[in-house]
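Tip: read the tokens left to right.
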């Protein structure tokens, strides 16, 4: 009667070894017996014993993390015994790989999917992920007129605006210069906090405001725990910068248009001034001619009077 063939299995995960150990009897038949080991060395030693006793060992199954690429003893022993060596990922590693793949798929969906979302949808996705990462941080309500940031203030956290409107402005030469409403996004204070610089502007609640105050430490912890939040946050910031750049371009175009209009009006004014100067010169010339005519007429009158007297005297004689 021939001896049953032996299938050797080396599993790295203790739970997996225990599970396989419980199933050995069910897996063992009159033709095949299954043995489970914890290391590749144990499996190699057992393979050599079986080879010495001429027991057929057609198949070796080893978790990849148990194999040392620099140690070729097991592959060489398997080849010498005409055994097939199968490498597999343990369930624990397989689970980690599956989680990593799922995470990558989620990140890829974030990168590719956000392009089709509106700014508001991306911002809502960021807030939802922040809620998950920080276990739903507290919301805070600010009355209208509340200053969230003041120019020159040290910033140690951000405010994520959920409801309401804010305005950004700076004090310039005694008056307030208000930025366009599109410049103010949902995240207040991130640039100053990231650069570790004082706030460059004032931020005031225009209406009653509901916001999530997030400290630097909380934001750092959330970003480390959620790659998805990092992607959403970067997306929100890129869109915010894009809006600001677009607003800058629009302002530049508007300024250039005003400059061209001003140049045209200046040219028209210069032409009008030139025509006025020419008219003035003609008027002065006309006045000079009129004055000269009056002078000539007066002289002629004065000359005519003596001539008339002489004529009368001549007639008398």
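Filled-in amino acids:
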């Amino acid at each position: 009667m021939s001896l049953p063939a032996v299938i050797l299995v080396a599993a790295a995960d203790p739970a997996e070894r225990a599970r396989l150990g419980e199933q050995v009897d069910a897996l063992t038949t009159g033709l095949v017996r299954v043995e489970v080991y914890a290391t590749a060395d144990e499996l190699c030693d057992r393979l050599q014993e079986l080879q010495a006793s001429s027991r057929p060992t057609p198949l070796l199954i080893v978790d990849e993390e148990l194999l040392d690429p620099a140690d070729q003893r097991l592959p060489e022993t398997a080849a010498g015994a005409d055994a097939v060596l199968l490498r597999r990922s343990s369930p624990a590693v397989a689970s980690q790989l599956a989680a990593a793949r799922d995470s990558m798929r989620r990140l890829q969906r974030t990168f590719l999917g956000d392009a089709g979302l509106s700014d508001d949808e991306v911002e809502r996705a960021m807030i939802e992920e922040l809620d998950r990462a920080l276990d739903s941080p507290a919301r805070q309500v600010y009355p209208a007129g509340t200053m969230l940031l003041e120019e020159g203030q040290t910033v140690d956290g951000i405010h994520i605006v959920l409801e309401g409107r804010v305005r950004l402005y700076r004090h310039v030469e005694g008056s307030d210069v208000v930025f366009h409403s599109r410049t103010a996004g949902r995240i207040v204070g991130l640039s100053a906090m990231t650069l570790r610089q004082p706030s460059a502007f004032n931020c005031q609640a225009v209406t009653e405001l509901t916001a999530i105050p997030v400290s630097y430490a909380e934001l750092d912890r959330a970003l480390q725990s959620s790659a998805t939040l990092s992607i959403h946050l970067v997306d929100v910031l890129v869109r915010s910068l894009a809006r600001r750049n677009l607003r800058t371009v629009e302002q530049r175009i508007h300024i250039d248009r005003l400059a061209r209009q001003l140049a045209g009006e200046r040219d028209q004014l210069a032409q009008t001034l030139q025509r006025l100067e020419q008219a003035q010169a003609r008027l002065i010339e006309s006045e000079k001619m009129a004055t000269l005519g009056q002078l000539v007429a007066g002289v002629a009158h004065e000359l005519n009077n003596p001539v008339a007297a002489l004529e009368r005297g001549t007639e008398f004689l």
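Helices lie at 14-27, 40-52, 73-80, 91-113, 119-133, 190-195, 216-225, 227-316. The first strand starts at residue 5 and ends at 10.
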